[in-house]
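Incident log, support desk, overnight shift.

02:14 A customer reports that sequence design results differ from what the structure should imply. Their input is reproduced verbatim below. On-call engineer (initials T.W.) acknowledged and began investigating.
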């Protein structure tokens, strides 16, 4: 569930004092914060924002004076005198470039891609009626897509392996977000893609909707042994949590989805908040210990309107907000599966 690499021309929203350093300040840009030298920028200044996981060519990082702070050209989050700093700022080469322009191609910036790891299971040709899940854009880049007060649902974002399972025209299908996988002959409970078909509530729900629809697809995450460094209480086994459901040609609205998951008792991602949106509530939900039975931090949250809708900038409106703790965690694994 990838997000778009954006290196935008943006305006600084605000500058606030650094609580622990007289010579530093905190600049707020879009939904991000960057620690900067005191006096270098003012609110309203036009800047280029280079986000975490941008890989910046040395020819540009050298002239910006940041090469020594990058990891093989990769922008990472850092804690500067106790305050998270997310990316870096630079003055645009052309001050007349419009706000919102994506400068990634201009600077030759690419996106860091996590190492690819393939789990057990054979890749087979995908099916046009078995789509991938919606790409999740980062709320920090699109903070105005959801207006304050819009009814939303906020769920814990699970750091696992994205999975889709479904019944399409009577045929059972399963796969990762990218690749459909053949059904193994045995030991489905050890296969991260086919695991949900070993859960009677999942099978019952899929078969129920398949009676009246040619397509029903459940989207979720598998996690636990051998998946990522966060286990969510499943260090010796695999777990599964659903987060979305396509019935026919549409994703269910949040109230319908919640009712279906509850009716069939399908394991699902924890619901952290339902109600009118405000950014402070979202950020509070993203932080702290996971709500699963484990001791590690939360990766963050997924934010969605309670009624399905689309936006010209991002398409289907489902956004992620990754916690500051997760961005700064150097011990976490970050694999993606083929």
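02:41 Re-run completed on a clean worker. Output:
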């Amino acid at each position: 569930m990838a997000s778009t690499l954006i290196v935008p021309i943006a305006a600084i929203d605000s500058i606030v004092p650094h609580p622990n350093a007289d010579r530093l300040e905190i600049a707020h840009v879009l939904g991000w914060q960057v620690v900067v030298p005191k006096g270098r920028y003012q609110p309203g200044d036009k800047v280029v924002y280079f986000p975490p996981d941008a890989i910046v060519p040395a020819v540009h990082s050298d002239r910006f004076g940041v090469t020594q702070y990058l990891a093989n050209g990769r922008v990472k989050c850092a804690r500067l005198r106790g305050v998270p700093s997310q990316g870096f700022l630079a003055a645009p080469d052309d001050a007349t470039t419009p706000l919102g322009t994506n400068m990634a191609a201009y600077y030759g910036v690419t996106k860091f891609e996590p190492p690819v790891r393939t789990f057990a299971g054979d890749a087979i040709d995908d099916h046009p009626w078995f789509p991938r899940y919606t790409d999740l854009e980062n709320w920090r880049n699109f903070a105005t897509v959801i207006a304050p007060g819009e009814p939303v649902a906020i769920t814990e974002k699970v750091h696992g392996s994205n999975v889709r399972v479904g019944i399409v025209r009577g045929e059972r299908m399963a796969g990762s977000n990218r690749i459909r996988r053949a059904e193994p002959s045995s030991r489905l409970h050890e296969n991260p893609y086919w695991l949900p078909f070993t859960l009677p509530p999942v099978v019952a729900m899929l078969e129920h909707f398949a009676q009246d629809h040619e397509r029903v697809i459940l989207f979720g995450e598998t996690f636990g042994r051998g998946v990522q460094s966060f286990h969510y209480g499943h260090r010796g086994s695999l777990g599964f949590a659903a987060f979305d459901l396509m019935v026919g040609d549409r994703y269910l609205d949040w109230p319908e989805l919640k009712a279906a998951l509850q009716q069939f008792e399908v394991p699902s991602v924890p619901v952290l908040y339902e109600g009118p949106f405000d950014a402070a509530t979202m950020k509070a939900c993203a932080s702290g210990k996971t709500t699963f039975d484990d001791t590690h931090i939360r990766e963050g949250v997924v934010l969605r309107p309670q009624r399905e809708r689309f936006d010209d900038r991002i398409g289907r409106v489902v956004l992620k907000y990754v916690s500051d703790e997760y961005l700064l965690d150097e011990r976490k694994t970050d694999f993606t599966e083929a």
